[in-house]
Amino acid sequence: MDHGLSRAVAKAAIRLALAATREEEDALKLELRQHDIWAAAVDYGGEYVTSVRRIVERAVIAAKREKVIADLHAEEGAVAGAAHEATQQLMPKALGLNIGGKIGVARGGDHIAVAIYVGIGLLHLDDVAISVGHRAVSAGRPLSTGKGGVN
After folding, report:
1. Cβ neighbours of residue 87 under 8 Å, at least 6 residues apart?
2. 103-116 in b/e burial notation, b at 16+ Cβ within 10 A?
């Protein structure tokens, strides 16, 4: 297993989840593409329990929209699994509370990482957390279309 690449992909997902603006996201995506890492980001919010499904769905949709993954069952499942894993890491802090933040998805080779940055709200006592899920998927297809996306 290439721990260097899996670490780079996880770091890319985290950096994207922490991006403060769309401009920062776009600049980061361009930088990552120079290192053969494709990425996507999307915002979310709501009550934790009802947000889990939406977070997983949004991660998959964003990854497909930004051409991080192809329209293949295995690749959608990898993103969904990594996103679900990341949501479960947040449960001890967020269960029963409102959350909101950003999802970062990154792929390099056969590594896919989903990072979730979350603000957790309870009255004026806000908290923050970050979580990361990782999955591997076959890299047996060409990744680059020459436009920074996948085929």
Report:
1. 51, 52, 55, 56, 116, 131
2. bbbbbbbbbbbbbb
| Residue 12 dihedral angles phi and psi, to the nearest 5° | -65, -45
Rounded to whole angstroms, how far apart are CA atoms 12 and 132?
A: 11
Inside any domain, residue 143: no
Which whole number is the average pLDDT over 77-96?
95
Containing domain of residue 16, as a range?
Answer: 3-136
The partner residues of 106 in beta bridges, in order of sequence, read 39, 113
Interval 91-127: pLDDT, tens: 999 999 999 999 999 999 999 999 999 999 877 778 9
Is residue 48 within a helix (H) or strand (E), and if so which, with residue range? helix 48-65
